[in-house]
Amino acid sequence: MSDPRLKPIMEISYLNAQNVGRYRCVMRYFYEQHQRLRYWLRPEDVYDGVCQYNLLENYTLEQCQKDLDQLVEWKNLIPRHDGGRSSTIEEYLRKKFRYQMTPYAVEIERMVAGLEDIRGYGGSLEPTLLETIADALVKLKESGGDFPPGEAEHLWNTLFGAFIRLTENASDYIASLQSTRAEELMMTEAFLIYKASLTQYLQNFVQGLQRNAFRIEGLLPLVPVETVRLFFQRVIADRNRMPQIEELPSPEELMERLLREWQSLVRWFTGEQGDHSDVAFLEQATKDTIARVVRCALRIQEKQRSGVSRRRELEHLGQWFFSLSSMEEAHRLAAYAFGLYRTRHFHGTDDKDTDAADVSMWQVGPNIRPLRSRSRKRSRDGGTQPIKSNRDQQDQARREYMERLQAETAMFNSLVAQGQVVISQLGPVSSAMRRQLLHWIGRCLTGQNRQVRTADGIRITLVPPAEGRRAVLHCDDGQLDMPDYMLVFEDLAGDRVGAREAREGA
Q1: 63 & 132 share domain
Q2: Three-class HEC string of 66-95
Q3: How many CB atoms lie within 10 A of CB 202?
Q4: How many angstroms separate the CA atoms of 91 and 89, rounded?
Q5: Residue 416: which of 446, 440, 447, 449 has the closest Cα?
Q6: What domain range is 51 assigned to?
Q7: pLDDT tens per residue across span 429-455
């Protein structure tokens, strides 16, 4: 037997057929009569009922009969031979029929009728449903799953029905507050009328949710699996006790379906595998909605106050500041009246004059940044302006650069004169020397044979420490823990000059 989920639903063909208007009028009349407990209808009755809608022009009884035959073919209607009204043999052989809706057609038309009434998401937040679920779980726990005939099914319908209504109505209501229409309403002043009642409605639901959700979450683990299975056996027995014409599913299938529904209820309240439960998400979504409602209301109120003069308030505040006796009290009043001022963010590099990570920005000097006016009004030129000379600044920068270059050269020559340098044997060094040493070490580590050659003809060889020995390099801006490297300096250019002078002397 193939799975019904893989079969096409032929019964909905009339909703998209070529003559959809005629088919829908016929099915709507059948559905209305079904609601009035009139199940079997003659073609003449259907034709008269469709004509009363005044929606189809030039509709005939022959067209109505064709529509009925087509709906029978699509399995929306069931025909039954009506021979009781025949007065002659010819009329009997003509096989007049009465028609009844199939169960599929009733559900489809009920769904279509419900779709026509939808004007939004709808839904509601009912904390009483949580109380119903909690009370039903208490009864289930205290009874041990054993109920008299008829009570088990009633309790399960109450419990699971309240759970379905809670989840569907709550999700629909929260979705309605997130819709485009709600967003547009929250931008208008008319929203202030609903703000107080809406906020109170949401807060009452959150309070009921917090009060009962934890109670339900604590009750569910206390209900044993044996109690649940015994309870479902009583539910199945109650359902089988009810006379049914249609074929019912087997007890094993009913038990499996009831257990799936129970697991969905448990998962919704307690979560699964360490994840947050759905009731926690519902609580957070409700709180976020309350915050959004309050923000929208404040925004509307601030917009209304934007055109109101605050001269009297500002005069009173100014007199208040004038009456204070100390600057500390004035600062305190300003903090209460105005709060924190808006911060301004400046883009650029932060020059702290040191690479130490533990040095705070408050311990170094300020970074000077020139600011230009953002005003769109440009001031007129007052005439010719003299050319500014920057020679003094250039000379000062040149002197500072030459002094720094001489210091680096002297430091470099002293290292070359030593021949080799070990990190652990160095005393306190400057930040410039520390940066130069790290620069050479980095180049040697990436060079071939751990050697590098400078532009002055100096070959620097890096010797790793034995057994991973480490040392601390003391700098004027901090201490650096690093491997105890040894740097060997060789003046290749000097060797070549000395060799050339020796050859010329010979």
Answers
A1: no
A2: HHHHHHHHCCCEEEEECCCCCCCHHHHHCC
A3: 19
A4: 5
A5: 440
A6: 4-116
A7: 888 788 888 888 888 888 778 888 887
